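notes to self, project folder thing:

trying the whole complex as one job this time. last attempt i did each chain seperately and stitching them together was a nightmare. two parts in total, labels are on each line so i dont mix them up again. if this works i'll redo the older ones the same way
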Amino acid sequence: MMSILVELLTAIAQAAVAYEQANEADKAALEGQARAAIDALRGTRSAAIADHDARTAETQKEIDDALKVHPLGALKDPSVP
Amino acid sequence: VSTFRLLIVSVALAGCDPTPVLFKAVAVGAPVVAAGYRSLDAADKDQQNAIRAEIKDDPQKAQADLNAHLKRYGIAAISLDTTMATMQTALDSVPALKAAHDKKATMDLVSTLFKLYEDVRQELAPLGIDVPKVTP
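result (full assembly):
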């Protein structure tokens, strides 16, 4: 009777170990997914910031050039609206 | 041997690692924050085009408008950057959380992430920047 009980519990234990191992593979896949998502996010951020920096430099240059030739450009402080 | 196996399984099941929930929270949040950056970039493009259109007539006003726009852009970018940094910190803290078996801290971190996604969405909406809603 005792040996049957031990065998039964052993079978349950083996099934649980197999489940836990499968679960570990799922966890690793999820971790990989999360890290890949963060990497993609970093790429998106870098591209957006680079676009903004280039755009701003261009706009600022246009403003600076216009201020040089504008009649009030040399007289007015650009930071004052 | 059978008893030993039982002991191992009991420990494994009692441990019930909550970090997959954290990975999932980062995985679903990242595309949403990325959409926020794309929306920020599109809004920036529109604003700067509008500013350029007025340079010829009034460069002083264009400069003032650019300064105001850059201030708003900076605020929005910081919100998105903070969210991204928190997500990275959450991922980096996984080994420590696992080692400590700290389920509460892990679940608190998940809650913090979802709150942050909602906060950044509401914060940027008035600036015309669209961050989609994340549903757990």
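what i see at first glance: The two ends of chain A are 92 Å apart (CA to CA).
need to look closer tmrw
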